Structure formats: structure tokens, C-alpha cells
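Lecture 7, part B: from sequences to assemblies.

Below are the input chains for today's worked example.
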Amino acid sequence: MLGYIVKRIIYVTPVALGVSVVCFLLVHLAPGDPLTSVLPIDATAEQQAQMRAIYGFDRPLIVQYGLWLWKVLHADLGNSIASGRPVLSEVSRAVVNSLILAAVATLIGFTFGSLFGFVAGYFRNSPLDKAASALSVFGVSVPHYWLGMVLVIVFSVQLNWLPATGAGPGGSDHWRPDAEHLRYIILPAITMSVIPMGIIARTVRALVADILAQEFVQALRAKGLSEWGVFKHVVRNAAPTALAVMGLQLGYLLGGSILIETVFSWPGTGFLLNAAIFQRDLPLLQGTILVLAMFFVVLNLIVDVLQTALDPRIQRG
Amino acid sequence: MSAIADSPPVVVLAQAGKGYWASVWSRLIKDKVAMTALAVILVIVLAAIFAPYIAPADPFKGSMLRRLKPIGFPGYPLGGDELGRDMLTRLIYGGRLSIFMGVLPVLCAFVVGSSIGIFAGYVGGWINTLLMRIIDVFFAFPSVLLAIALSGALGAGILNSIVSLTIVFVPQIARVAEAVTTQIRTRDYVEAARVSGAGAFTIVRMHVLGNVLGPIFVFSTSLISVSMILAAGLSFLGLGVKPPEAEWGLMLNTLRTAIYSQPLVAALPGLMIFMVSISFNLFSDGLRSAMEVKQ
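Predicted structure of the full complex, as C-alpha cells:
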């Protein structure tokens, strides 16, 4: 097991380096002199020269990358142009809110997705199965930012049950698990949960149908095990893959939350990215994306290792 | 989606007397869901192409006196937008940019991605490993994040949005193409062609392309739905089309403030995105089952 973990980490390192290269190049992808993107427009020539030296823009690209990576490894993602504060502190504040939202959404999506998936897998080709497949097609086809708007129209504008935007009363930007804040997370979390719900329902349906068709299930039934007992076996066999899909979905949601966070003015990384893009705050853009992508890489690694630990049948080299 | 990468579909070639594509079509035409989806796509695409002839009004001309009119208001069958322009007209015209910007990235990625994938799969060895490791790096970014990162850095605009989405889809298509090609390459008939002295180009053209393009094509059609949602999403964020152009994502954004006065009108552009996206998804599912006939 330990050997496997080490092997996975060795494998992930070049990917992580590649991710850092892509993030580094983002600033250079921007049209024009990269300097103009890290400086306010009204900077004097002197400030420009100073900045050029700090960022090393006068050196070859590979040297710049090395310098940048060195700083990143020492937890220095530069300063935001708009606020002047360190990018890392801005991102870490926002990432907590995003994580909470993504985690709640994944939990909702996983609960209902596995429920629908189990029912559909057990009763294949029944109306319930058809409904579950319709739900998964809906989940992957609906523009989630539009779904968010529709939910706001129904539950905030028409029924006036739930708040339309924000993370808490009075523009609170720290979500806490109390009754007041809970009302604010319901709509964005439900909106976000639709994608993983569809994907998990589809996965679990296929898994359950596959497991039920296997001979050991027949053997369990033949030896007189109750349907409940068989069900427990099915759950145990489906769990590793379903949990792995759930873990990856959490990563996708965290990275893809920008549109939903914009609709609901949720103070997370998506909101931060939106601000970074429109203020042309490239260090903030670069830092946020690096943090989110690295999170995804690490999450992938954890999911992979956990899946192997949970399911001894998986032998990976 | 990864299911395809793992097990490329078994394609049965030519049933008695019929070409492969003819038999796929004859199966597809019996699939009611896929045919309905195709009909919806065709109606919306044709309406967009012939917009100047069928749209009741000018998509850019509005009247500040008739802002945000409800559905069914005289002269405004689907209501009026925040600048008093006819919604029906703008939804019809909106299909032009929305569908163009959703489909084109997948087309470009199909060409680039399958070239990379087939090349990598065919040459094999360390070149394949290197290319696939580079592809892995792009898989470390969730699609939405990568699309927004790229177009955020490049800046707003139609071309930048198309370029960003193409870069998002190239790795996905390349990975599928590589998996299928690697499998085909080791088949006996390819081996036989090689032994009999056929050059690499001939083998790829004669034996690989015919077997590889089908699965890649199906996979690519399944990406159009995602691409539509992402392209409109970029415009929704202000990263794609700029006002006053008619495009569904942008229209959804500019109508966001209207959810309190005309909620139904404000939701219409999103409904269009949803209809096209789900139609492409259902058609792609139908195409997949029509093409993948397990032996």
C-alpha cells in the first residue's frame, strides 16, 4: 500500500509541475506587455522599471518561471493589484466558502443520485428507471447558471421563501452553520447539486445492474440470504466506485463554481475569479486558478489511494 | 465519457448489401427520441440561418417606451427585453452566434485532437508517452475552470472564447483518439498491411482512420452540449460576445436584473440554451447506440 502511494505521488509530480507551467503562462498569454497586467495603468516609468526587476520580466522565460515557482513553493503567490493584499490570503478566505458550498452540493447530489441510481438499477426498464435516466440527462444538459436563475425566480422572487443572493444576512462573507446562514446556502447548493446528481445516478445505476447480474448474487440468494442481506452486499461492492466519482465531482464543482457563485453572489473563489477577470487582476487570476487546480490534483490523488484502499480487488501498477 | 476511452466501441462494418453509414442511419431513424432531438436542432438552426426572413422585427432596434414587456404584449409575441427589443426576434438571431460558438470549438478540437491522438497512438513509444503526459496536465483542470482561465487571460471576444474552448476539448478528444488508435494498431490486419510493405501514411489512411473516426465522432458530438453551455456561460460572464449582439448567454446576463419585473421573459434565453444542449445530448446518445452494435 505504501509503495503504491509513493508511486502515485511520483506520478503526480510531473502533472503538478505541468499545471504550474500552464498557470505561469496565463499571465504571458494575456495580450500586450505582461508588465501592464501587473501594474496599475497610471504607473510611472520608474515604478515600471522597479516592477520589471521584481518580476524579472527582463529575463528569459524559463528563469522567470523558476523564480515564480520558487516563490510559489514558499507560499508567495504575489499581491493582488486591486486590493494590494497577498493573493494567498484572498484565495484562502474565498476557498473556504467555495469548499462549503461544493461540499454541501456534493452531499445532496450524492445522496439523491445514489438513491435514484439504486432504484433504477434494481428496477431496470421500469418507469422509475426511465425517470432516473431522464434526471441524469437533465443534470448534464441544463445550463446550471440558468437553473440558478430559475430557482431564484421561483423561490425568492415569486414565493419569497429564500434569499436570492449572498452567503448570509447583512452581506456576511463568512458562512457559518447556523439557521440564518443555512437559508442562504439552500438555493446555490441545490443548483450545484444537479450535475453530480445526474452523474452519480448514472454511475450507480450501471454499477448496481452490473453487480446484480453477477453469479455471487445468485449464490447469495440461493443460500437463502434475505433481500436486505443481498442489498448490503450490493452496496459494499458499489461503494468504492461511487465514492470515487463523488470525490472527483467535488473537485469539478469547486473548479466550476464560478458561474453559480456569480449568479448567487456567493463570496467564494468563483466570485474572486470574476472580480480578477474584470479588474484585469492577473496575479489574483493566476493564484486562484493555481490553488484550485492543485486542489483538484491532490483530490484526484486522495480519491485514487482511498479507492485502492477500499477495494482490495483493484491491483494497480 | 471515460467509458469510451476504456473500451472503444465495436463497430460492425457493412451489413449485407448496405454501407455502414446507411445501416447506422436506418437504426437511428427508428429512434424516436434521437429523431425528435435532431428535429429540434434543425428547426433552431434553420430559424437562425433564415433569421432575416422569419424574424418579425429588427434585433437591434428597440424602444425605451416599451421596455420589459410581458409575453403576449401586442407586437411582442415573447415579450420585450430591457431595451425594448423584440425577444422573439433576438432569440431567433441569438441562435446564430450561440450555436456557432458552441459547435465550432468542438469541430476545431475534433480536427486537432484526433490528429494528435492518432499520431500518438500510431507511433507509440516515448513520443506517445510524452504527448499523453502533456494531455494529463490539461485533465488536471476542471473544464469550466480551464475555459474561464484561458478566456480570462486572453480577454473577452468571440475569437478568444472559441480558442479557449477548443483548447479545453483538444485533450479530451486526443485521449479518446489515442486509446482507439492504440487498440487498432495492434490488430492483425494492420500488422499484415505493415508486413506487406504499406507505408505509415497508407496504413493510417486505409485502416486506422476508418475505424477510429467513428468513435471519435460520437464522442465529439457528446461534447457539443457541454460546449454550448460553456460558450454561453462565457458570454454570461461577459467573456464572450459583447453587447448589443444577440447571443443567448449574453441576453441571459443582461436580463438578470429583470427577474423581478418580467421573470418569464428573463428566463427565455436560458431555455433556448437548455433546449439545444439537451437535444445534442439525446441525439448523441442515439447516435452512439446506433453505431455501437455489440457483436
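Note for the exam: The CA atoms of residues 114 and 201 of chain A lie 5 Å apart. Keep this in mind when comparing with the next example.
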